[in-house]
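ok trying this again, last paste got cut off
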Amino acid sequence: MRYCTIVVRICLVSAVWHGPGSRTESTRTPSYLALCFGVPDANDPRLRGVRGISFESGNVMRITTQLARHKTDRQRQVALFQGGRHAVTRVLSVEQFGAPGVLTLVKCWLETGRTHQIRVHMAYAGHGLVGDPVYGRRRKPAARAMSPDAVAAVQSFPRQALHAAELGLQHPTRHEPMSFRVDPPADMANLLNQLRKVADQSIRGLAIPLPL
Protein backbone atom coordinates (compact mmCIF):
# COMPACT_ATOMS: atom_id res chain seq x y z
CA MET A 1 0.00 0.00 0.00
CA ARG A 2 3.01 2.31 -0.16
CA TYR A 3 2.12 5.61 -1.89
CA CYS A 4 -1.53 4.56 -2.18
CA THR A 5 -3.96 6.65 -0.17
CA ILE A 6 -6.42 4.58 1.84
CA VAL A 7 -9.43 4.54 4.10
CA VAL A 8 -8.16 3.72 7.59
CA ARG A 9 -10.46 2.04 10.06
CA ILE A 10 -9.71 2.75 13.74
CA CYS A 11 -11.45 0.54 16.28
CA LEU A 12 -12.22 2.11 19.63
CA VAL A 13 -14.37 -0.66 21.02
CA SER A 14 -12.60 -3.22 23.20
CA ALA A 15 -14.90 -5.93 21.84
CA VAL A 16 -13.09 -5.61 18.52
CA TRP A 17 -10.02 -7.08 20.12
CA HIS A 18 -11.48 -9.17 22.92
CA GLY A 19 -14.85 -10.30 21.60
CA PRO A 20 -15.64 -13.49 19.69
CA GLY A 21 -13.18 -13.93 16.87
CA SER A 22 -11.26 -10.81 18.00
CA ARG A 23 -11.59 -9.30 14.49
CA THR A 24 -14.05 -7.36 12.41
CA GLU A 25 -15.20 -9.00 9.19
CA SER A 26 -15.27 -7.46 5.75
CA THR A 27 -18.79 -7.39 4.35
CA ARG A 28 -18.19 -5.63 1.05
CA THR A 29 -15.52 -5.79 -1.59
CA PRO A 30 -13.20 -2.77 -1.15
CA SER A 31 -13.10 -0.35 -4.07
CA TYR A 32 -10.30 1.81 -5.40
CA LEU A 33 -10.01 4.77 -7.74
CA ALA A 34 -7.09 4.93 -10.16
CA LEU A 35 -6.00 7.05 -13.10
CA CYS A 36 -4.66 4.87 -15.90
CA PHE A 37 -3.29 5.30 -19.39
CA GLY A 38 -5.59 4.46 -22.27
CA VAL A 39 -9.26 3.52 -22.15
CA PRO A 40 -10.26 0.02 -20.97
CA ASP A 41 -13.15 -0.88 -23.25
CA ALA A 42 -14.87 -4.06 -24.41
CA ASN A 43 -14.70 -2.78 -28.01
CA ASP A 44 -10.90 -2.66 -27.97
CA PRO A 45 -9.81 -5.59 -30.18
CA ARG A 46 -6.41 -5.69 -28.48
CA LEU A 47 -7.95 -6.57 -25.12
CA ARG A 48 -10.04 -9.36 -26.63
CA GLY A 49 -6.83 -11.19 -27.43
CA VAL A 50 -5.21 -10.89 -24.00
CA ARG A 51 -5.30 -14.08 -21.95
CA GLY A 52 -7.09 -13.68 -18.63
CA ILE A 53 -9.07 -10.59 -19.65
CA SER A 54 -12.82 -10.66 -20.25
CA PHE A 55 -15.70 -8.22 -20.04
CA GLU A 56 -18.86 -8.50 -17.98
CA SER A 57 -22.11 -6.58 -18.39
CA GLY A 58 -21.79 -2.82 -18.02
CA ASN A 59 -18.36 -2.78 -19.72
CA VAL A 60 -16.69 -4.11 -16.55
CA MET A 61 -13.26 -5.52 -17.35
CA ARG A 62 -12.36 -8.67 -15.41
CA ILE A 63 -8.68 -9.56 -15.08
CA THR A 64 -7.88 -13.06 -13.84
CA THR A 65 -4.29 -14.28 -13.46
CA GLN A 66 -1.88 -15.72 -10.94
CA LEU A 67 0.52 -13.28 -9.23
CA ALA A 68 4.02 -14.07 -8.04
CA ARG A 69 7.27 -12.32 -7.20
CA HIS A 70 9.55 -11.49 -10.11
CA LYS A 71 12.42 -13.99 -10.37
CA THR A 72 15.17 -11.37 -10.30
CA ASP A 73 13.52 -8.24 -8.87
CA ARG A 74 11.99 -9.24 -5.54
CA GLN A 75 10.25 -5.87 -5.18
CA ARG A 76 8.05 -6.57 -8.20
CA GLN A 77 5.11 -8.85 -8.84
CA VAL A 78 4.34 -10.45 -12.20
CA ALA A 79 1.16 -11.79 -13.78
CA LEU A 80 1.37 -15.40 -14.92
CA PHE A 81 -0.75 -18.51 -15.37
CA GLN A 82 1.40 -21.21 -13.79
CA GLY A 83 2.21 -21.04 -10.08
CA GLY A 84 1.74 -17.96 -7.93
CA ARG A 85 -1.50 -16.97 -6.22
CA HIS A 86 -4.92 -16.56 -7.80
CA ALA A 87 -5.92 -12.90 -8.34
CA VAL A 88 -9.06 -11.27 -9.77
CA THR A 89 -9.60 -7.55 -10.39
CA ARG A 90 -12.68 -5.87 -11.86
CA VAL A 91 -12.35 -2.48 -13.54
CA LEU A 92 -14.97 0.05 -14.63
CA SER A 93 -14.23 3.23 -16.60
CA VAL A 94 -15.65 6.25 -14.80
CA GLU A 95 -14.26 9.28 -16.66
CA GLN A 96 -12.14 9.71 -19.77
CA PHE A 97 -9.71 12.53 -20.58
CA GLY A 98 -8.42 13.65 -23.94
CA ALA A 99 -9.62 13.72 -27.54
CA PRO A 100 -9.35 10.90 -28.33
CA GLY A 101 -9.34 9.48 -24.81
CA VAL A 102 -5.81 8.81 -23.54
CA LEU A 103 -6.39 8.67 -19.77
CA THR A 104 -9.20 7.12 -17.75
CA LEU A 105 -10.32 7.39 -14.16
CA VAL A 106 -11.33 3.84 -13.24
CA LYS A 107 -12.99 2.17 -10.30
CA CYS A 108 -11.48 -1.15 -9.28
CA TRP A 109 -12.86 -3.96 -7.13
CA LEU A 110 -10.65 -6.68 -5.70
CA GLU A 111 -12.01 -10.18 -5.48
CA THR A 112 -8.64 -11.12 -3.99
CA GLY A 113 -6.12 -8.95 -2.17
CA ARG A 114 -2.61 -9.58 -3.46
CA THR A 115 0.48 -7.37 -3.21
CA HIS A 116 0.43 -4.68 -5.94
CA GLN A 117 -2.59 -6.42 -7.48
CA ILE A 118 -4.25 -3.43 -9.15
CA ARG A 119 -0.95 -2.01 -10.37
CA VAL A 120 0.20 -5.32 -11.85
CA HIS A 121 -3.14 -6.18 -13.41
CA MET A 122 -3.61 -2.77 -14.98
CA ALA A 123 -0.08 -2.86 -16.42
CA TYR A 124 -0.72 -6.39 -17.69
CA ALA A 125 -3.82 -5.12 -19.51
CA GLY A 126 -1.78 -2.33 -21.10
CA HIS A 127 -3.36 0.34 -18.89
CA GLY A 128 -0.63 1.12 -16.36
CA LEU A 129 -1.29 3.72 -13.65
CA VAL A 130 -0.18 7.32 -13.94
CA GLY A 131 2.85 7.98 -11.75
CA ASP A 132 3.62 4.32 -11.06
CA PRO A 133 7.45 4.12 -10.90
CA VAL A 134 7.54 0.32 -10.92
CA TYR A 135 4.90 -0.83 -13.41
CA GLY A 136 4.00 2.38 -15.25
CA ARG A 137 7.08 2.55 -17.54
CA ARG A 138 7.09 6.36 -17.34
CA ARG A 139 4.47 6.70 -20.07
CA LYS A 140 3.03 10.05 -21.03
CA PRO A 141 -0.21 11.00 -22.78
CA ALA A 142 -0.12 11.65 -26.51
CA ALA A 143 0.50 15.36 -27.04
CA ARG A 144 -2.04 15.48 -29.87
CA ALA A 145 -4.84 14.41 -27.51
CA MET A 146 -4.21 16.79 -24.60
CA SER A 147 -2.92 20.26 -24.02
CA PRO A 148 0.72 20.77 -22.93
CA ASP A 149 -0.47 21.77 -19.45
CA ALA A 150 -2.37 18.52 -19.08
CA VAL A 151 0.59 16.44 -20.24
CA ALA A 152 2.88 18.30 -17.83
CA ALA A 153 0.49 17.73 -14.91
CA VAL A 154 0.44 14.00 -15.59
CA GLN A 155 4.21 13.70 -15.96
CA SER A 156 4.89 15.62 -12.74
CA PHE A 157 2.53 13.56 -10.56
CA PRO A 158 4.88 12.17 -7.88
CA ARG A 159 3.29 8.78 -7.08
CA GLN A 160 0.94 6.21 -8.51
CA ALA A 161 -2.55 7.66 -8.92
CA LEU A 162 -4.29 5.05 -6.78
CA HIS A 163 -6.71 5.64 -3.92
CA ALA A 164 -8.53 3.12 -1.73
CA ALA A 165 -11.92 4.82 -1.65
CA GLU A 166 -14.33 2.48 0.11
CA LEU A 167 -14.19 -0.21 2.76
CA GLY A 168 -17.00 -2.30 4.22
CA LEU A 169 -16.99 -4.26 7.47
CA GLN A 170 -19.28 -5.74 10.09
CA HIS A 171 -19.71 -3.93 13.40
CA PRO A 172 -18.04 -6.05 16.12
CA THR A 173 -20.92 -5.92 18.59
CA ARG A 174 -24.06 -4.99 16.66
CA HIS A 175 -23.08 -7.18 13.68
CA GLU A 176 -24.43 -4.57 11.28
CA PRO A 177 -22.79 -3.81 7.93
CA MET A 178 -20.75 -0.59 7.94
CA SER A 179 -19.33 1.29 4.97
CA PHE A 180 -16.57 3.90 4.94
CA ARG A 181 -15.88 6.16 1.97
CA VAL A 182 -13.39 8.96 1.46
CA ASP A 183 -12.71 11.27 -1.48
CA PRO A 184 -9.33 11.25 -3.23
CA PRO A 185 -6.62 13.23 -1.40
CA ALA A 186 -5.63 16.72 -2.44
CA ASP A 187 -2.85 15.77 -4.87
CA MET A 188 -4.96 13.31 -6.84
CA ALA A 189 -8.04 15.56 -6.72
CA ASN A 190 -5.95 18.47 -8.01
CA LEU A 191 -4.61 16.35 -10.87
CA LEU A 192 -8.12 15.31 -11.90
CA ASN A 193 -9.33 18.90 -11.71
CA GLN A 194 -6.41 20.04 -13.87
CA LEU A 195 -7.24 17.42 -16.45
CA ARG A 196 -10.89 18.45 -16.48
CA LYS A 197 -9.92 22.08 -16.84
CA VAL A 198 -7.24 21.94 -19.52
CA ALA A 199 -7.89 18.76 -21.48
CA ASP A 200 -9.28 19.32 -24.95
CA GLN A 201 -12.23 17.12 -24.11
CA SER A 202 -13.48 15.36 -20.97
CA ILE A 203 -16.11 12.66 -21.24
CA ARG A 204 -17.90 12.15 -17.98
CA GLY A 205 -19.39 8.81 -16.96
CA LEU A 206 -21.15 7.24 -14.02
CA ALA A 207 -19.69 4.42 -11.94
CA ILE A 208 -22.01 1.42 -11.67
CA PRO A 209 -21.63 -0.56 -8.42
CA LEU A 210 -20.96 -4.25 -8.81
CA PRO A 211 -23.47 -6.57 -7.13
CA LEU A 212 -22.33 -8.10 -3.88
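PB: full thing came through this time. The chain has five helices and nine strands.
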